[in-house]
Structure formats: C-alpha cells, structure tokens
C-alpha cells in the first residue's frame, strides 16, 4: 500500500503526463480523437484510489487550459474536468470496492467501461445545463458526435491499452 506522499507525487506525475500527452497529440491533430488526458486519469484512478483520480481528473484539463490555452477554459476545460473527475472516481470505486468478477483483468475492463459511460453522461449533463445558460449550441446529435463518434479511436485505444498497462503496473507493484 502506498503512503500519501507517494500518491501525491504520482498524482503530480499523472497530471504532468496528461498535459504533455495532450500537447503532443493536439499538435499532431489527434487530440480529440485519442483523448490523451483520459488515459492518465483512468490509470491514476485505478492505481492511486478515488481521491487521487478525482484530483488528477479535475486538475489536468484546467491546468492545460491555463498553461497552454487548450482546451478553452470555459466551457470546455470545466466540462472536461467534471468528466475526467468522474472517470477517476468511478473507475476506482468499481475496481477497488465493487469487484464484479473474480478475475482482476476483467474487473479492470468492467470498471473502465462503466466509468467511460458515467463520465460521458456527466459531460452531457454539464453541456445541457451550460447550453441553456450561455446559448451554447448543444443537443443530442452534437453530444453523440463529440463524445462517441469523434472520440471512437480514443475509446478503442483506451479499451485496448489501459487494462494491460494497469495489469503490468500491478504486477510490477507500481
């Protein structure tokens, strides 16, 4: 079991890694398609616990918005913070406390998929509220297009790569 100092340092690492990956992928024109910040939040949530997954999820997009101007702070970075914070909390709780399967690798997949769904619902709810307040165009078609269709490559990469990465880290006692 990691102590709190280790978890704080690793959280900083995941936040920094999320920022660096976001800059790299966005400069390659693959930012929205790959969703690089999501990877670090999912891994932080599983390996560090819900509090740290929450913190990494909130801080990473806001820090990117402030330091690099992308994504725009409002409404996008704020919405992403809510979405990513949800990912960090949900993946951790399902993986560490619910344990739907006796197979640890399957638990990673289940936690990942459920957290992806719940986080996207939070994202949709946020934009529904914001669009009614600031006249920001958002509807079901835009939601499906932005969080499913355009993000499909990232979703596939997350499903393919996060479980093996987490499994590897756990075997190495990361």
Describe the protein in words.
This protein is mainly alpha-helical. 84% of the residues lie in helices and 0% in strands. The chain is built from 8 helices and no strands. It has helices at residues 4-27, 31-34, 36-48, 50-68, 73-98, 104-134, 140-149, 152-171. It is globular, with a radius of gyration of 16 Å. 37% of the residues are buried. The mean pLDDT is 91.
Structural class: mainly alpha
Question: What percentage of amino acids are in beta strands?
Answer: under 5%
Distance between the termini: 10 Å
Largest sheet: none
- Output the radius of gyration: 16 Å
- Residue stretches low in confidence (pLDDT < 50, at least 5 long) are none
Average per-residue pLDDT, rounded, comes to 91
Please give the number of β-strands.
0
Number of helices: 8
Overall geometric form: globular
Helix content: over 70%
**Secondary-structure element order, N to C:** HHHHHHHH
């Amino acid at each position: 079991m990691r102590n709190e100092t280790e978890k704080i340092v690793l959280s900083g690492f995941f936040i920094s890694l999320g920022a660096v990956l976001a800059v790299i992928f966005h400069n390659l024109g693959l930012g929205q398609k790959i969703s690089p910040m999501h990877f670090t939040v999912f891994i932080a949530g599983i390996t560090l616990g819900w509090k740290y997954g929450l913190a990494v999820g909130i801080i990473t997009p806001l820090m990117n918005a402030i330091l690099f101007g992308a994504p725009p702070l409002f409404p996008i970075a704020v919405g992403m913070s809510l979405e990513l914070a949800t990912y960090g909390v949900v993946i951790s709780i399902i993986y560490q406390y619910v344990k739907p399967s006796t197979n640890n690798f399957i638990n990673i997949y289940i936690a990942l998929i459920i957290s992806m769904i719940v986080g996207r619902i939070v994202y949709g709810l946020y934009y529904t509220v914001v669009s009614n307040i600031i006249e920001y165009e958002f509807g079901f078609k835009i939601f499906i297009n932005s969080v499913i269709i355009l993000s499909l490559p990232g979703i596939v990469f997350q499903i393919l790569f996060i479980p093996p990465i987490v499994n590897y880290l756990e075997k190495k006692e990361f």
